[in-house]
Amino acid sequence: MNGQFKTTAVLTGLVAAFLGLAGAFRSDLWDRTAPVSPIPLVNLSFLSTNTVRTNYADLIRLKADLSDFDCYACHDEKKPPSLRFDTNQNLVIPEEHSDIVMGHGGHNRNNNCFNCHNETNLVLLQTRDGREVKFDYSPPLCGSCHGPTYRDWEAGAHGRTSGYWDRNLGPADRKQCVSCHNPHKPPFPPRPPAPGPHPLRAVVPPTLAQERGP
Ligand code: HEC
Ligand code: HEC
Ligand code: HEC
Ligand code: HEC
Asked: Which of 44-48, 64-68, 94-98 comes out lowest in average pLDDT?
């Protein structure tokens, strides 16, 4: 009898203690949540899967303005443009092409327009061994001087392959050199690093909290 009474007393005591604790938690007696600064939203450019450049083939697909590529709107078909140089033998870019900044290789090594453009037919590119290359697919032009990089690119070790792994589902899309390198100034532009992960005990930003409800 005595044993059962003890058990009841202990259980009642425990229930009372837990109810007390529950009440205390509910009324937030110990408000210890350390202030956590709100997580700044990530710049959406970090989530973009686009390449850094929009090349000629992209412009066609996007039905964008192609007037820069309409060479014979300004040039005479019978007269190739002549290159002008200043007294230091540096190429002078005419005002109509002021959006072009040349810087291909150290010491202006590959700044001659006709290393790549065909002087007798401006709407085509040309390789040093005389092959004609169209603007909408220029990797063979780059490959004619950058053989090792071109081989890496063909094998998928340089550049980027998008599209499908499973070729039964759709084609792979190997991004062109000019999707990443400006042909006139090819060094890859530096990019700011994406922010690191936020530490634990993150605070849900108010906008998300609203979407998720209480
Ligand atoms: C808005 C008009 C315009 C368009 C479009 C245009 N050009 Fe020109 N370009 C000029 C003018 C003006 C000059 C300077 C005079 C000249 O040499 O005929 C020039 C000069 C050049 C030169 C000589 C550059 C130098 O440094 O001396 C080249 C090469 C050239 N253009 C190539 C092209 C090619 C290739 C295209 C098409 C992909 C093109 N241009 C489209 C207006 C244009
Ligand atoms: C006529 C030959 C020739 C063609 C065509 C050519 N390049 Fe180059 N490229 C060079 C030379 C020369 C250099 C400089 C190498 C050096 O300075 O050591 C260079 C340098 C570069 C660099 C390194 C830039 C740097 O400063 O780190 C890149 C990237 C590049 N080219 C990309 C391209 C791309 C993309 C194409 C096609 C649109 C292309 N090249 C077409 C000759 C060429
Ligand atoms: C290394 C090769 C190379 C050299 C050198 C080069 N170009 Fe180009 N250029 C290209 C390629 C490739 C494209 C097409 C790029 C694309 O698909 O976005 C192009 C595009 C253009 C265009 C049309 C788009 C634009 O940017 O306006 C013009 C005009 C042009 N080049 C003029 C010139 C002139 C003028 C020179 C000399 C001062 C020159 N290029 C030197 C490879 C070259
Ligand atoms: C998806 C983007 C991308 C594509 C597509 C791409 N490259 Fe590059 N390339 C880069 C980056 C990033 C670097 C490294 C730049 C750095 O180190 O500053 C680079 C470096 C280079 C260099 C410098 C030397 C080296 O090998 O490190 C050359 C030359 C070059 N690329 C040529 C090409 C050619 C030619 C093609 C096409 C056949 C091509 N690239 C396609 C992104 C690309």
From this structure: 44-48
Judge whether 101 lies within some domain.
Answer: yes
pLDDT tens, position by position, 6-61: 999 999 999 999 999 999 888 877 766 667 777 778 888 888 889 999 999 999 99
Q: Work out how many domains the chain is built from and give that number.
A: 1
Q: Is the CB of 137 under 6 A from ligand 3?
A: no
- Does residue 84 fall inside a structural domain? yes
Contacts of the segment 176-180: beta carbons below 8 A, 24+ positions apart = 176/55, 176/57, 176/137, 176/138, 176/139, 177/138, 177/139, 177/142, 177/153, 178/53, 178/55, 178/56, 178/138, 178/142, 179/51, 179/52, 179/53, 179/55, 179/58, 180/51, 180/52, 180/53
Q: Is residue 200 part of a domain?
A: no
Which amino acid residue places its CA nearest to atom 14 of ligand 2?
105
